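Researcher: Quick test of sequence recovery. Tokens follow.
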């Protein structure tokens, strides 16, 4: 195990959680806000699960994810940047909503269900990582790593399961945070994720050997029976 990479992963994960807390609790003006702690808890679980899988099963994937080589598509860099900015805006707006009470009508039971959905959504991502040693942060054909098609685990059901998990999380979090305005912002994030799914799928079909045949066997990108 590469200890330097492990420390980098831990540092970036902790920094991400701290940043999320700042952009949630700061605008809210309080820290006794259980849904925000729920969001951070789900994120912490996902990061820990991914780290455990990557560093135990695919050590070379850690380097790929932490220091991806050149080769990312320009559209991918733009979409990723957009998603991060939207997620940041969602947290800020949710915090302000909590402080000023812009939204109303959220039952605690609904928030708890949303917490469960967000957790299940983020369970899909480590499951996908465990079955795809080419799970990079960027869209590129990893010829240097012997890139091949991942077809086991959740990839038996849809071609991009991690994006399905992300979308579930994106839609559940604003409901857990009891913010209609945050939900509107998250919808923009979902649209970008869906767009990235389509563009990544097109890239893989055109450039990754065996992917077109896999796409014939697993027909749906995100949701079985729909798309």
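Model:
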């Amino acid at each position: 195990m590469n200890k330097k990479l492990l420390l980098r992963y831990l540092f970036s994960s902790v920094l991400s959680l701290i940043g999320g807390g700042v952009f949630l609790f700061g605008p809210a003006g309080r820290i006794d806000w259980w849904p925000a702690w729920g969001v951070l808890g789900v994120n912490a679980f996902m990061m820990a699960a991914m780290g455990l899988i990557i560093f135990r099963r695919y050590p070379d994937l850690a380097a790929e994810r932490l220091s991806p080589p050149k080769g990312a598509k320009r559209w991918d860099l733009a979409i990723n940047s957009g998603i991060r900015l939207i997620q940041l805006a969602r947290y800020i707006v949710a915090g302000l909503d909590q402080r000023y009470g812009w939204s109303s009508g959220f039952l605690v039971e609904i928030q708890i269900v949303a917490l469960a959905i967000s957790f299940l959504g983020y369970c899909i991502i480590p499951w996908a990582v465990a079955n795809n040693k080419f799970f990079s942060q960027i869209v590129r054909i990893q010829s240097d790593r012997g890139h091949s098609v991942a077809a086991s685990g959740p990839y038996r059901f849809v071609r991009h399961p991690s994006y399905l998990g992300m979308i579930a999380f994106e839609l559940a979090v604003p409901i857990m945070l009891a913010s209609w305005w945050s939900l509107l912002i998250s919808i923009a994030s979902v649209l970008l994720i869906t767009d990235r799914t389509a563009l990544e799928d097109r890239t893989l079909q055109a450039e990754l050997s065996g992917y077109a045949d896999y796409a014939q066997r697993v027909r749906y990108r995100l949701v079985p029976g729909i798309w």
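The chain has one domain: 3-217.
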